[in-house]
Structures are given as structure tokens and as C-alpha cells.
Amino acid sequence: MWTHQDQLKAQRQSMEKSRFGYTREEVLDAKGRRCAKCGNTNENVLQIDHKDGGGRHATEMGKIIPGKTHSMSNLQVLCDVCLGTKDKINGLKGIGLHGIDYHKAA
């Protein structure tokens, strides 16, 4: 018998598959289920990151960033700490959380 959690997981996987072409689980499998920077394997803290921006948050806001793709080659797995560090470094470079170069945007 399916629980509510099972139903939510199936619904999320279906949405991921239709939007990106693969699920979080498929990306984790393809990328070795570990952080690309530090090697952390705790799946509770692993995030799927678009190397060149243009991920889910940008898509949900209706931003289409030229040249940005959801292809597997543009994805990496990062833990919360390494993703936060990447976002902070990009912020210092003037690049927003969604891969937008603030120096060019306006």
C-alpha cells in the first residue's frame, strides 16, 4: 500500500522526468552519488547543480538563459556546503544564483 510520502516521491519523479529528461535518482547514479568537490556521500545534503546556471529556479521564474542546458554534461552533484561556497564565490564575481552576470544584465 502506498503512503502519502510514496505518492509525493512518484509525483516529484514524474515532474523531474518531464521537465529535465531524468530524475534526481538517475543524475545521482550517473554522477556517482557523491559531491564532485569534497566527496560527501550523505544523500540528505546532496544537490543537483547546473554548472553553468540556468537550473530549476531560473526556469521557474521564466528566465531562459541562452546556451544553458539541462544536459547531463552540464550537471554536477554538490553537497550543501560546496554549493553554498560556489554561490558565494559567484556572488563575489557579480554572478547571481541563477547564473546571471549582473555586470551584463540590465
The DSSP helix count reads 4
Q: What is the rounded distance between the termini?
A: 53 Å
Helical/strand content category: mainly alpha
Mean pLDDT: 78
Low-confidence stretches: 101-106
Give the percentage of residues in beta strands: 5-15%
Number of strands: 2
Can you give the helix content as a percent range? 25-40%
**Could you give the order of strands across the largest sheet?**
1-2
The CATH class is identified as Alpha Beta
Number of domains: 1
CATH topology title? His-Me finger endonuclease fold
Largest sheet: 2 strands, antiparallel
CATH architecture: 3-Layer(aba) Sandwich
> Which overall shape is indicated by the principal axes computed on the Cα atoms?
globular
Pattern of helices and strands: HHEHEH
